[in-house]
Structure formats: structure tokens, C-alpha cells
Amino acid sequence: MTEHKLIPPHGGFRKLRSFQCAQSVYDGTVVFCNRFVDKKSRTHDQMVQAARSGVQNIAEGSLASATSKKTELKLTGVARASLGELLLDFEDFLRQKKMRQWAKNDPEALEVRGKFRSDKSDKSYGSDMSDNYHFSELSAERLANTLICLINQASYLLWQQIKFLEKEFLNTGGFTERMYKVRKNFRKE
User: Fold this and answer.
1) pLDDT for 157 beyond 60
2) Per-residue pLDDT tens for 87-99?
3) Strands (E), the chain
4) How far is residue 29's CA from residue 133's CA, in Å, rounded to a whole number?
5) Residue 126 above 60 pLDDT?
6) Domain residues of the chain, as ranges?
7) CB 4 within 8 A of CB 185
8) How sure is the predictor about 2, in pLDDT bands with cuts at 50, 70 and 90?
């Protein structure tokens, strides 16, 4: 009898670079908001929740991928949209405080991107990638800009992930198609 695989490997979100980057954004956003945004303000809560949503939707999408590529794609897109909302908050902060926003190729931005790119280790549960950036030691301007760089990196990685998921769906189909094929093959045996 042939083994039929209905449920593909799924989860593994902790190894995704998009998850690792989004988790750093979340950690940094909590530090930023606690230091520079009034804790009683709606903005504080919204920024932290947008950062959290980025991380949580990547994880949820990865876990849902076992039975729904549609859900995985949707939640990956929601993660990207949440980080986009957060990006605007950081840009607004810099603009309203009349602080400089780094251009994409400013030396400081390149340094942040290089630091993330150089850390290739597996970030399993319990590790703290955000410590690489020393969030609690940075000025408001430097921390906001660092987080903008990381948000842009996470957004780029999520877009690449979405394109990969799209291609994977076109090649292998969804759960319903797999159920039909597995059942059909099972009946033949």
C-alpha cells in the first residue's frame, strides 16, 4: 500500500527570516513606545498591536498552511499590511518631531540592513535577535529609523514569501485538490 500524504509539512515559522525580522520589529516597537510614546495614548497601543499583528499573522499563516494555502497567503498579506501601518507611524513620528529620516542608502540604514543580513543563525524559541540592535540604548531618532529599516526588510521578505506561496499554489494546488487526489489514489489501491 502506498503512503498518501494529505497534510504537508507546515509551521516552521521560527526559521523564516520574515518572522525573525518582524519579531525584532515587535521587540523594538515595544521598547520605542514605552520610552517615547505616552503609555496612555491610543498611538502607543496601536503601534504595539500593529507590530504584534505582523509577528502573529506570520506564525498563524504558517501553521494554517497545513490545510489552507488561501489562509496562509491571506495572513502573510495581513502581516505585511500591519507592518505597513506601523511604518507610517514611525515616519509620522519623525516628521512631527522634525527629526531626520534616513534615506534607503544612508550609511546608517545600510549598517542596520547589513546587521540583519549577517545574522543567519536559526532563531529558535527563547533567543533574542533584537539584542543585536540595543534598542533600549538608542535615541528616539535612531531607534525610529532602525525600526523603519527593519520594517522595510520584513515587508520585502514577506513580499518574496507571498510570491513563493503563489508559485507553490500554482504548482501543487490547495488542500481540497490534495484531498481529492489522495482519496482517488487510495480508492485505486
Assistant:
1) yes
2) 999 999 999 999 9
3) none
4) 12
5) no
6) 13-188
7) yes
8) very low
Measured between its terminal Cα atoms, the distance across the chain in Å is 7
**Distances, alpha carbon 111 to alpha carbons 74, 88, 100, in Å:** 32, 22, 16
CB hemisphere CA count around 155 (13 angstroms): 15
What DSSP designation does 101 have?
A: P
Per residue in 17-62, pLDDT tens?
999 999 999 999 999 999 999 999 999 999 999 999 999 999 999 9
CA distances (Å), origin 164, targets 14, 157, 161 = 18, 10, 5
Mean pLDDT of 170-183: 66
State residue 127's pLDDT score. 47
How would DSSP label each residue in 48-77? Answer: HHHHHHHHHHHHHHHHHTTT-HHHHHHHHH
The answer to whether 11 and 187 have CB atoms below 8 angstroms apart is no
CA 104-105-109 angle, to 5 degrees, is 70
